[in-house]
Description:
The chain is α/β, with parallel strands linked by helices. The chain is 39% helix and 22% strand. It has helices at residues 12-24, 43-53, 68-74, and strands spanning 3-8, 31-36, 57-61. The chain has a three-stranded parallel sheet with strand order 1-2-3, sandwiched between helices. Helix 2 (43-53) links the parallel strand 2 and strand 3. Helix 1 packs parallel to helix 2 (43-53). It starts with a strand and ends in a 5-residue tail after the last helix. The mean pLDDT is 82.
Amino acid sequence: MKSVAMAYYNGAKYIDEQIRSILANMEDTDELIISVDDASDGSETILQNWAQNDPRIRIIKGPGKGVVKNLSLIHISEP
Length: 79
């Protein structure tokens, strides 16, 4: 099992392509943890749709203070 942590902030134009690329390189047992820090471009809806359709994806919402990178690491599953 691999865990991939991705910090995200306002990039709705690119997020689908990024997620597709990451998932294409993952196994079924891997996980993608996306931490979102107060996005204001509507991308949270896009991310939630991805998470609902792929069990490997988890979304972690940050407090809006630029700490999302560390939040991802806290939520990584142990093998």
